[in-house]
Design brief:
It comes from Micropruina glycogenica. Keywords: Membrane, Transmembrane, Transmembrane helix. The chain has one domain. With 216 residues, the protein is mainly α. 81% of the residues lie in helices and 0% in strands. Helix 2 crosses helix 4 and helix 4 packs across helix 5.
Length: 216
């Protein structure tokens, strides 16, 4: 039952991020900030010298507090939200890459995710990140969430195996990896087409608003 609900939420958030990640950037970054805070809070809590039930409770408390704090910061402060959104996307890509390479979830996976998050934050600070890069990143992140949700719903992995068996399931059942690539490409193509349409509409509106000068 837990796998079903978590899978549905992951699938819904993945579709939302993948299809509307650029156009609804502020709301999307708030959601991504909450997801990032959830993972970071859980990772920090797992570093505490606890075991058994105490570690489980501390992990959930840390994850929820991280999600609330990061999500609120991302929504309340839009400039901070951009950096938090980039950090959350970088963390998801970095940690997902480590899992795909066969590393079990732990401090090393968390560290690589944090490093990739830091790189994207620096890129965002140094210059204006192009819209295409944002679209690609949200497309990849959305596809990752959507496929993870589908794997949970179909029973390919369980919540207990989420950090350790996802890459193994993709290696065993190659169509999951192929599906992730296809979904990511579809998300990117949809957002690029939507962006081009909105820019074309804005240009037509600007031309229509210009005063017509009568010929002399």
């Amino acid at each position: 039952m837990n796998e079903m609900w978590v899978g549905l939420v992951a699938l819904a958030v993945g579709l939302l991020v993948g299809l509307a990640g650029y156009r609804a950037l502020r709301v999307m970054i708030a959601l991504l900030g909450a997801v990032s805070g959830f993972g970071i809070g859980a990772g920090l809590a797992q570093a505490l010298p606890l075991s058994g039930g105490g570690l489980t409770v501390a992990t959930w408390v840390g994850a929820l507090l991280g999600a609330i704090v990061f999500g609120w910061l991302a929504y309340a402060f839009y400039q901070v939200a951009v950096l938090l959104g980039l950090a959350s996307i970088g963390f998801a890509i970095g940690s997902g890459l480590m899992l795909a390479l066969g590393f079990r979830g732990g401090w090393l996976t968390w560290l690589v995710g944090a490093l990739v998050a830091g790189v994207l934050v620096v890129i965002g600070l140094v210059g204006d990140l192009p819209a295409i890069l944002l679209i690609v990143l949200t497309g990849l992140s959305g596809a990752n969430l959507a496929i993870t949700g589908a794997m949970l719903l179909t029973g390919s992995i369980t919540l207990a195996q989420l950090d350790t068996a996802g890459s193994a399931a993709m290696a065993r059942d190659w169509w999951w990896a192929l599906a992730a690539l296809v979904v990511a490409a579809a998300f990117v193509a949809y957002q690029l087409r939507s962006l081009n349409r909105s820019r074309a509409a804005a240009m037509r509106a600007q031309w229509a608003a210009r005063p017509v000068t009568a010929p002399r």
